[in-house]
Design a protein that fits this description.
This protein is an alpha/beta fold. It folds into two domains: 3-262 and 374-387, Alkaline Phosphatase, subunit A (3-Layer(aba) Sandwich), CATH 3.40.720; 264-370, Gyrase A, domain 2, CATH 3.30.1360. The chain is built from 16 helices and 16 strands. A seven-stranded mixed beta sheet has the order 2-16-9-1-8-6-7, sandwiched between helices. It is globular and about 65 Å long. The mean pLDDT is 95.
């Protein structure tokens, strides 16, 4: 088997305690809710449940291997790191955060990637629009999201804290449940909201999201000077927050939704360079640059697979969507009706290769750092636990 195939089963098996989903299962039980999933290894659920304030700080794009390479050994995050977890598949924000917000894997919650096949169109969930304005109606939220939010089930007072431009998006509103939404214009305001919430008299659970590392990684590359500067500033800011929280009954858990790699050649590669593959498709490519979702013409499926196997095996592996679901890549007990959202074949990128389709009116994504695939740098995310009482 090739390197990509070797990662499929380990990621599927991670849901037994080493996955991002297991983290939210621990939070849910510690907050008076229920979950069918095992808790995350490295977390004491009894101690967590006894804590007054639980805070999940998600730093988009902070892979565990990036932390090891960039963070100081004596820095706050490394000294409080208790292990690593696996992200979900695809290793991307839309799928991973939906898992955190619902307590269900992608194969159940339905948000399979940044771009999905939906209503004979390509729908971009987090932007809540069809990729091409082709007259297709906007879907109802219930048609896209298949799982209720965790905040609707827990018995703690819930809070969402987002950058100001995300706090009222359809995605954020849908997954807020009974929680209150707070916004922040910068990192200091974001961390200040944590400080404010931790002074409340009741029991709370807060989900706090900051996207800066992911944005800088896309623009400048993994571990670039800009990325390192932002990481140091974020770690310093969290360290100052922890100093303010000392003596209060707070457990602060820091993790990520995925890691990241620098694209082979430093840029995304268009499928137009492979017209023999493009000609087999019945619809534009969806998914991620590192995990392309392909809807293939029925009469050309065998030809498509043969082309991938015989001409492109050094850059990609063609996985039938039905096999991806049956092997648990999208999580256990998937809803098979969701398979159409991923098309017929998933092109899993070897090493650090990418593949995207540029539609009329679009430009080739100018991303250096990418994610969504099965490279270990994309899969592994840190589990950092800080108790301040």
């Amino acid at each position: 088997m090739n390197a990509v195939q070797d990662q499929i089963d380990p990621l599927a098996q991670s849901y037994h305690g080493h996955n991002l989903l297991n983290l939210i299962a621990s939070f849910e039980r510690a907050s008076g809710g229920m979950s069918d999933f095992a808790g995350a290894h490295g977390l004491d659920e009894d101690a967590l449940g006894a804590q007054q304030h639980i805070v999940l700080l998600l730093l988009d794009g902070l892979g565990d291997r990036l932390l090891a390479r960039t963070g100081q050994a004596t820095g706050l995050f490394n000294t409080h790191r208790v292990g690593a977890l696996s992200s979900v598949f695809p290793t991307t924000t839309s799928a991973a955060i939906s898992a955190l917000m619902t307590g269900h894997p992608p194969g159940q919650h339905g948000v399979l990637a940044w771009h999905m096949h939906l209503q004979d169109s390509i729908f971009t969930t987090l932007l809540w629009r069809h990729r091409q304005q082709n007259g297709a109606r906007a879907p109802r939220e219930s048609e896209v999201f298949r799982a209720e939010p965790v905040f609707a089930r827990i018995k703690r007072e819930g809070f969402q804290v987002h950058p100001h431009f995300l706090v009222d998006s359809p995605f954020s509103r849908r997954h807020r449940g009974k929680a209150r939404g707070f916004s922040a214009r910068n990192l200091n305001e974001l961390l200040g909201q944590i400080n404010h919430i931790s002074q409340r008299p009741g029991r709370t659970f807060s989900y706090v999201y900051w996207p800066e590392l992911d944005s800088l990684g896309h623009k400048h590359g993994v571990g670039s000077a800009q990325w390192r500067d932002a990481f140091q500033r974020i770690e310093s800011g969290v360290e100052q927050l922890v100093s303010k929280l000392r003596g209060r009954p707070v457990t602060l858990v820091v993790t990520a939704d995925h890691g990241m790699v620098d694209a082979h050649g430093g840029a995304c590669q268009p499928i137009s360079k492979h017209p023999e593959l493009l000609d087999c498709l019945a619809a534009p490519v969806a998914g991620e640059p590192r995990a392309a979702f392909c809807r293939v013409k029925a009469e050309r499926l065998d030809e498509f697979d043969a082309l991938c196997r015989e001409r492109h095996s050094d850059t990609l592996y063609s996985l039938p969507v039905a096999e991806a679901f049956s092997r648990g890549l999208f999580g256990p007990d998937p809803d098979l009706s969701l398979q159409t959202r991923a098309g017929d074949r998933i092109l899993l990128m070897q090493d650090k290769h990418t593949l995207v389709e540029v539609l009329p009116g679009e430009e080739l994504p100018s991303m250096v750092g990418v994610h969504g695939g099965l490279h270990q740098d994309e899969i592994d995310i840190p589990l950092v636990v800080i108790n301040t009482d």
